[in-house]
Specification:
This protein has 416 residues and is of the alpha/beta class. It contains 11 helices and 16 strands. Helices cover 34% and strands 24% of the residues.
Length: 416
């Protein structure tokens, strides 16, 4: 690369803005907002972009879109960041820790947002270069990634993917050192559904369980026996895992309650196995609790398919990682779910894993209130995302259909 290369221009822009990007990340971290309530977060991003003379398009509830480069691009490359936080109490003790009780950015979305903001400012600095090549970039600041169904559907229903030929995203990975970016061709996350099972029965006195329907006992059998039965009814190569996150029933030591509920997620590595999993799970729940006379209502919200990274998009990301002065590292498929997957059912693209662990420091985990992220990752993420747009220009245009401008993008997938 020469000094005048667009990759160098991106690097200079990100370097000039790094201190501000870190400050914005800390501000967002201190003021987390849950899915579809990211009003302040949206305003912070929009205000900074508008101050730089960059036009934004706000989505209906929260979130926004930014278009850069050619006014009528022959090629439009998408970038996506997510804005929402989690209902988890922060335990880091950082000076910029969450000021909202019970809510925190324990998945690193504040880092994603700051990195995408930096990428947007960097791409704006080379807008003439993009325009001369007929290339446009659309940056999507998406709401509600952490809920099911997620905010990807909100974005697509409002035309956010219209005209986009390829799309990229990053996700924080505290198992990788800062300076490393995890890349993988093929599936990199898992399919995930939200599962809620409500049991109802007569209830009564704990001294007479034979005259009641012992709902608490049935709930315990449900929680332990259904995952076990599922493991014997599904191909083990599917990597299915039913894990409960919430169990509630009763309020007194001597009363058998009349209602109880267990909630969790069903995740699996194989998309084909995912397609028939709802019927099987409903069957198993009802079979397990039937001997106890209780009634089971099974509610399954289809969450996301696996994120499947396109090989050509990984080529562009590899070039971008090198241009970001980072190291491309192999990364395994995980059982985590990501609604970025819905974009990839429409257009090719890829998600990279952004290393956030301080070199030699402790390894944290996502969705925990004690996670601490090395903020050097923000600049690396910004350079990588902006570089992915440049790297895509050298790729052949996808052979599959690209959603044309003006055609609603939010039409449900037939088998969704």
């Amino acid at each position: 690369m020469t000094e005048s290369s667009p990759f160098d221009a991106i690097r200079r822009s990100v370097t000039a803005n790094t201190d501000e990007l870190v400050a914005i990340r800390r501000d967002l971290h201190a003021h987390p907002e849950l899915g579809r309530s990211e009003v302040r977060t949206t305003a912070v991003v929009a205000d900074r972009l508008e101050a730089a003379g960059i036009a934004v398009r706000r989505l209906r509830a929260s979130g926004l879109l930014v278009d850069l480069g050619a006014r009528q691009p022959s090629r439009l490359i998408g970038l996506r960041a997510d804005l929402d936080a989690l209902p988890i109490r922060e335990q880091t003790g950082l000076p910029f820790a969450s000021r909202t009780d019970g809510v925190s950015h324990s998945c690193g979305h504040d880092v994603h947002t700051a990195a995408a903001l930096g990428a947007t400012l960097a791409l704006a600095s080379i807008e003439d270069h993009l325009d001369a090549r007929g290339v446009g970039a659309r940056v999507i600041f998406q709401p509600a990634e952490e809920v099911m169904p997620g905010g990807a559907e909100d974005v697509m229903s409002q035309g956010g993917l219209d005209g986009v030929e390829r799309i990229f995203a990053l996700h924080c990975d505290p198992s990788l050192d800062v300076g490393e970016v995890g890349l993988r061709v093929g599936p990199v996350t898992a399919a995930a559904n939200q599962v809620d099972v409500t049991l109802t029965g007569r209830g009564g006195h704990t001294s007479r369980p034979h005259l009641t329907e012992d709902l608490t006992f049935a709930l315990a059998k449900l929680v332990t026996d259904v995952p076990a039965a599922l493991s014997r009814r599904m191909d083990p190569r599917a990597g299915a895992a039913l894990v409960w996150g919430s169990i509630h029933s009763g309020g007194a030591h001597n009363v058998i309650p009349s209602t109880g509920k267990a909630s969790g997620t069903l995740r699996m590595l194989d998309a084909d196995a995912w397609e028939g999993s709802e019927r099987l799970l409903d069957e198993l729940v009802k079979a397990v609790v039937a001997p106890y006379g209780v009634t089971a209502d099974v509610s399954i919200v289809r969450g996301v398919p696996p994120v499947v990274n396109d090989a050509a998009s990984i080529e562009a990301l590899t070039q971008a990682v090198h241009g970001a002065d980072a190291i491309a590292a192999p990364t395994p498929q995980s059982l985590g779910g990501e609604d970025f997957a819905w974009y990839l059912t429409r257009v090719p693209g890829a998600m990279a894993r952004l290393g956030t662990r301080s070199v030699g420091g402790p390894t944290y985990d996502l969705h925990r209130g004690d996670i601490v992220i090395d903020e050097d990752a923000i600049a690396i993420g910004a350079r990588t995302l902006a570089g992915a747009v440049l790297g895509s220009v050298a790729l052949p245009q996808p052979a599959g259909p690209v959603l044309p401008v003006g055609v609603p993008a939010g039409t449900p997938v037939a088998d969704r």
